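User: Can you model how calcium ion sits in this protein?
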Amino acid sequence: MTLLQSWVESANSADTDFPLNNLPYGAFSTGGPRRCGVAIGAQILDVTALEAAGILTLENGPLLQAGDWNAVMSAGPTVWDALRGWLQTALAAGSGQQANLAPHLVDQANAQMHLPITVAEYTDFYAGKNHAVNVGTMFRGAENALPANWLSIPIGYNGRASSVVVSGTDVVRPNGQLKAPDAELPRFAPSARFDLELEMGAIVGQPSEGMVSVQEADDMIFGYVLLNDWSARDIQAWEYQPLGPFQAKATATSISPWIVTKAALEPFRTSTPERERPLLAYLTEPGPMLYDIDLEVGLTPSGKGESIIARTNYNQMYYSAAQQLCHHTTSGCAMRVGDLLGSGTISGPSKDSRGSMLELSWGGKEPLTLDSGDSRSFLEDGDRLTLRGAALGDGYRVGFGECTGKVLPAKPVPDWAQ
Ligand code: CA
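Assistant: Here's the modeled complex, given as structure tokens:
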């Protein structure tokens, strides 16, 4: 596959995240109601308007008038394929649709982005082995780093859909109950070890009842986004036993505004690594279910330039989203259209490929020096975190855009809470 040519000139570049090969789905507004849009080069194609005008017709439609993609997801893979096929033809160089579509292009610079879907429920996994070993070593020592179940189960916890926000949303440093290791008693205070987690999010586009296979799970996935699981390490260290993270992970979960579809990522499929312990049969993958997606994390201190603090790849995961989704259904747990699955933090084997400050600064023992000369163990107020990702093809990229958010100071702790 090479760069596909579009009549939208800005899409015909090796550098754009959004060539005709990609066509990710988002929700935007320009002062009025929310609309569904498709990114093409530096533009957004307003497909809500195209459907309303009768230029685009989908089976069992209208499906694009609510300003999110849930109705399209519910309609199923036949409609997903039909829509993508129509868009790739209509936006291709030489298309007879150019005159009909051109009036419905909006500059991305003039659009406000919103959550692309109504998130039904949110589950976060823990599928990066390097991350699990690093964190386990810090929390429990090298001898007990990897939990006994880790090589057999895609571990996860049920998060909160209400925590999910779109890229660009500021994040207020949480207050919470925390206890210093040498303190006798806990206290209620702002988190002093506020952190990011670099993850991918898989969006479930079809419902299930009862257990599904890994292949069926893969078929249910609509697409992927970048995801930052903001994490308060001091709250987490005190609260996490025995039921796992709770308030440490409930402040915010940022996702990138564009859903890159499974179809766009198809050329970049890759296999999970060699199994260190054989998986039970139900978790065995029938084919490659991970993706080769380059990822990076930028940290911008207030008023300073950005430093890239980590570079890694989604291919580092031990479990794919399809395996996670399959495992999620083993109990009979029903999955819904709009469920969001976090991959778990994506850390590579080297020090500069770690996807959290906890790992990058080794629990604060080895602070990072940024390009600006500032030092960081965890996030400071005013810091902006930006995740970026792209699958790299031959002369083109299938990009995710950015997932960004700025840390605002904690709210004052009221007298009655101290
Ligand atoms: Ca996480």
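A couple of observations from the model: The chain has a mean pLDDT of 97. The first strand starts at residue 25 and ends at 29.
User: Helpful, thanks.
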